[in-house]
Amino acid sequence: MNDPIADLLTRIRNASQALLPAVEVPHSKMKESIAAILKQEGYITEFALEGQGAARSIHLKLKYQGKKSVIEGLQRVSSPGLRRYVGATDIPRVRGGLGVAVLSTSEGVMSGRQARKKNLGGELLCYFW
Predict the structure, then answer these.
(1) CA–CA separation, 13 and 10 (whole Å)
(2) Integer distance in angstroms from the first to the last C-alpha of the chain?
(3) Contact 109, 34 (CB under 8 A)
(4) In this structure, are residues 92 and 112 in contact, taking their beta carbons and an 8 Å threshold?
(5) What is the mean pLDDT of each run of 10 residues along the chain (129 residues)?
(6) To bridge 121 with a disulfide, which of 70, 82, 87, 125 should be the other Cys (CB 3.0-4.6 Å)?
(7) Gap between the Cα atoms of 1 and 52, Å rounded
(8) CA-CA distance, 107 to 14, in Å (whole number)?
(9) 3-state secondary structure string, the chain?
(10) CA dihedral 27, 41, 21, 76 (to 10 degrees)
(11) How far is CA 84 from CA 69, 87, 89, 90, in A?
């Protein structure tokens, strides 16, 4: 797998379109950080780590409003073939502030709001709305 973050986003997109209650993804620290941001911003109800060693996985419980997913869309911005970096003043507002930009900064993975507040730039990983 060349792009594990794109794999995470694709699994979430497919599960939410199929109205599945939960999705299982292989574990990595980056994916765990993205899952924590999704929970903090209210896009998923909870996430849990399962297994141990190389067989660890992240179990994400998706959030729905009736028969519609809370996650309307998600997009990978920076990829292994073309990295996209932004400064603290250039962090985009997703859907006029209704969405979330996820950045990898020198202080870890955080949302665009947190990075703006701490005056940090970094690699723009993905958007959620």
Answers:
(1) 5
(2) 25
(3) yes
(4) yes
(5) 93 96 96 96 95 93 94 95 96 94 97 96 96
(6) 87
(7) 21
(8) 31
(9) CCCHHHHHHHHHHHHHHCCCCEEEEECCHHHHHHHHHHHHHCCEEEEEEECCHHHCEEEEEECEECCEECCCCEEECCCCCCCCEECHHHCCCHHHHCCEEEEEECCEEEEHHHHHHHCCCEEEEEEEC
(10) -60
(11) 28, 10, 15, 12
State the Cα–Cα distance between residues 104 and 88, nearest whole angstrom: 12
Residues making up the chain, counted from first to last: 129
Two tokens, residue 106: 């020198």
